[in-house]
Each structure stands twice: as C-alpha cells, then as structure tokens.
Design brief:
- The protein is an alpha+beta fold.
- It folds into two domains: 5-194, Ribonuclease H-like superfamily/Ribonuclease H (Nucleotidyltransferase, domain 5); 204-283, SH3 type barrels (Roll).
- Helix content is 33%, strand content 25%.
- It has ten helices and ten strands.
- The chain has helices at residues 63-69, 73-76, 82-93, 103-115, 129-136, 145-151, 162-182, 188-194, 209-220, 279-283; strands spanning 17-24, 34-43, 46-54, 97-100, 126-128, 223-229, 235-245, 249-254, 259-264, 268-274.
- Helix 5 runs parallel beside helix 7 (162-182).
Amino acid sequence: MNQLGPLYSLPLKELPIVIVDLETTGLRPQIDAICEIGAVRFRGGLLEEQFTTLVNPQRTIDEEVVKIHKLTNEMLDHAPLLDEVLPDFLSFIDSSVIAGHNAGFDISFLAPAALNWGLDLYRSSILDTAYLSRKLIPKLESYALSNLAKTFTLPETRFHRALEDAITTGHLLELLFTKAEEQGIHTLAQLEAIYPFPGTPRPYSDLSPLEQTIWKAITHGFDIEIAYRNRKQEVSIRRITPDRLSTTKVHAHCHLRDEQRVFLTDRIEKYKLLDPTSEANKSSDPS
C-alpha cells in the first residue's frame, strides 16, 4: 500500500477525494500538453471545493482537437504556464485520494511535472471511474462519461470541459460507491483489493497502431470492431468495449458473448474504432 495508509480503513463515502480532469492538445503525454485543469474535492457526496485554470500549452492546437473541447489557441495564449499553476494544484490535491474518468490518461500527463515538485502521483491512491463502472455496472453499451451521466441522470454539465467533467465524475463516483457497498465493499482497502487501479500504458509512441487504437477506445469510451482468430483458426467479427491493455492482451466486454473476455492482440487480424454516438456503428454490432 502507499503513503495514504490511514485512509484505507475509512468508509468509502467518508474518503477525502479529489476528482481530476484535464483537457489536452492530444492523447500523447510525451508529445502533447495540458491546456486546462479542473478538479473538485468531494466528501460524503458533497462538493466541498473546486479548482480550475486554463494552461498555456506552448504549442498550436489542431482544429480537430479544438472542436472537442472548444479551447482555442487565442483563449490559451495568455493563460499561465503549467509550472506556474502546478504548485497550487498539488496543494489542492494534498493527501486526498485521486479519482478520474480514465484516470490513467490524466495521471500520465500530470505525473512527470509533479515529480519536479517532489510528488510522485503514482504513490497516491487512484480510482478510475471508467474502470470501476465497467466492473460494478457491467453490460452497458457505452462507458463514456456523457453516456453514464445520461443513463443514471447525473447532474448535466458541458462535457469536454475540465471542471464540468470533474463534477460529473464526482457524482458518478458516489453512485459507484453505492454499487460497491451493495457488493459488500465498504472501505478503500477492500475496493483496491478487488478492483485495483489498472495503471497507465506504455508511452504512446511505443505502441503499435492496434494498441494505439485500443488505448484511444479506453480513453474515450469507444468500442472496437475486431476480426478475431481463435485457437481453431476460425475468424469471427466481434464488437468489444476494452477496459485494460497489457503487453499481449486486451481485457474487454465482448458484445457477441455478452461477457468479459481476454483477447490476445496477435490474434486480432482487423480492427475498426467505433464512435458510440454513431447510429450506424451501433447497428454494426454483430450480436
């Protein structure tokens, strides 16, 4: 266990938790940069405090990315640099549990900068609401934050802005704690023992095109259509919702079998990223 030992015995809904969300210039933490930080402190279902700031990424943002989060280059030109806002942000986190939707993505951007200030974020307790949602609420069609908010009528916000997404994630986490308690999971120690943080993938540039597609699906809650070859050398078309990528395997919900499965990446012969908002893609589900 990590440096947050005293928190492990607390009831889940009494934990001091900071939910973090970032907007970035892209998906590659080694190349891209943070352009907005949003964070909220939740305890007992109540929003206690919030932190938000734009960040000058010191690079031009592609138009396709601007369409997602609506942060233009002009809006960020006079924003503070990451090194200027990071001390206040790390102070805001303090010794809280860190949570986020696809938390591995956000931590992969924040961790290198935090190390420069003497804080190893990977020694914090980290809860990933995307991963926990797949485990505690299985068989949903999509685990994108917007879909979960709609499915469970969470408070409406503007999606793809950091603070609003952090607030929505906080309400989602409270729902997940209730689901965990229904399974007899009452403390952080119990939750991490059963559903440990899945971690962060290898550097994006080191991933194969298939692995990059899987990581993109995990990050954005997309599904993937794959042509998969089994041990009998039979190929079937499947729609999967991936939640974890290891060196040789992808852990995913298989819509064809309607269950959690493990797929060997070297048996995936073809693949296509599916946007869950597309009706055409929904209709392509082979199940």
